[in-house]
Q: What sequence folds into this?
């Protein structure tokens, strides 16, 4: 079965990003497929490579990047939500005249159409948020 | 074609969820799916008439609801019980309409007030439910 | 349909809204702070017990353990599941509604 996951909150402040991650791992462990993980609202903050949490706690951003790398998961950050909150890749930084980019490995920035497609293509869409 | 329902439970302006939720609905309208919106709890406040965010210096998303009809999002279900709890009537809400091309482009209301029981049925009928 | 609720019933109306709209025969999964709803002898216990007569209530065990909710404090008849059970519920129901 194909799953899509939507993450509406940023790392640490709400449990949403953790629950979404553990759910995603369980989906893969059960032999199902993740079509896409779409980050919206403050969820886009899951995609910043500047996050430096304390060493004795989980590294939420790196955890997503590893998931993307190890299981070829499509992690998409919504461009409009990202622009508002300052999550940029090199292209976005250049296009908007910013002096740096901060997107984490494994994430890509794209439009809301990717969320709709995630709902159309998957058998199940789950939303994690506040 | 899948049935998409966007469930709105937040009041406007206090959080960004209604505004960013509306952006999803408008983008989603281009994908030729069967789209509807549900307004439950404080979500019904999104449709309040006369919203003016000028003194807040914030973008006012209220006028955007007026465009939904043009995007063929014509089913805005509002829960009766949520209105009652908040002392609101249909008259307090924006007059949102769409033009029915199968009926000579006559203007019809997009807001459909439904009971909790009816909304429960509507939720069951959906394929994909998103929450804002 | 699988309904998930994630907010404490003492803090938010989400659980009440969910139970008001969920059809008989639904699966309702309490996650994150909503797991406090499994406790007996609270202001929401009767609402939860009432829902149990028509729907099946589950709670995510890792969230219960994190919050120190002992099994002896739980309303009898609540089903505990892990994340694997969460996935199973999502598979066996035709869709998932998240009451955030």
A:
């Amino acid at each position: 079965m194909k799953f899509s996951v939507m993450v509406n909150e940023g790392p640490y402040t709400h449990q949403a990003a953790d629950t979404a991650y553990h759910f995603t791992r369980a989906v893969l462990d059960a032999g199902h497929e993740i079509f896409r993980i779409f980050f919206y609202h403050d969820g886009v903050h899951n995609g910043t490579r500047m996050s430096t949490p304390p060493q004795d706690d989980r590294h939420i951003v790196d955890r997503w990047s590893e998931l993307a790398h190890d299981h070829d998961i499509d992690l998409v950050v919504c461009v409009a939500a990202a622009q508002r909150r300052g999550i940029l890749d090199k292209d976005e930084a250049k296009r908007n005249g910013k002096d740096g980019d901060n997107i984490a490995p494994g994430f890509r920035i794209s439009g809301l159409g990717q969320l709709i497609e995630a709902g159309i293509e998957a058998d199940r869409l789950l939303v994690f948020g506040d | 074609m899948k049935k998409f329902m966007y469930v709105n439970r937040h009041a406007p302006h206090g959080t960004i969820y209604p505004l960013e939720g509306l952006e999803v609905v408008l983008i989603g309208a281009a994908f030729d799916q069967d789209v509807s919106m549900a307004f439950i709890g404080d979500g019904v406040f999104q449709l309040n008439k006369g919203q003016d965010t000028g003194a807040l210096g914030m973008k006012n998303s209220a006028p955007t609801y007026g465009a939904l009809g043009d995007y063929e999002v014509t089913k805005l279900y509002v829960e009766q019980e949520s209105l009652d709890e908040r002392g609101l009537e249909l008259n307090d809400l924006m007059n949102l309409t769409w033009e029915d091309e199968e009926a000579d482009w006559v203007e019809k209301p997009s807001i459909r007030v439904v009971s909790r029981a009816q909304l429960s049925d509507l939720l069951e009928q959906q394929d994909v439910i998103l929450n804002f | 349909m699988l309904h998930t609720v994630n907010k404490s019933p003492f803090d938010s109306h989400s659980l009440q809204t969910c139970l008001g709209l969920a059809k008989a025969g639904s699966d309702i999964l309490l996650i994150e702070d909503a797991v406090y709803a499994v406790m007996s002898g609270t202001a929401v216990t009767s609402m939860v017990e009432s829902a149990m007569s028509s729907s099946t209530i589950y709670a995510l065990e890792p969230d219960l353990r994190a919050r120190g909710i002992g099994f002896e404090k739980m309303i009898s008849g609540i089903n505990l599941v892990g994340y694997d059970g969460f996935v199973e519920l999502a598979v066996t129901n035709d869709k998932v509604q998240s009451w955030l």
The radius of gyration of chain B is 14 Å. Chain B has a mean pLDDT of 96.
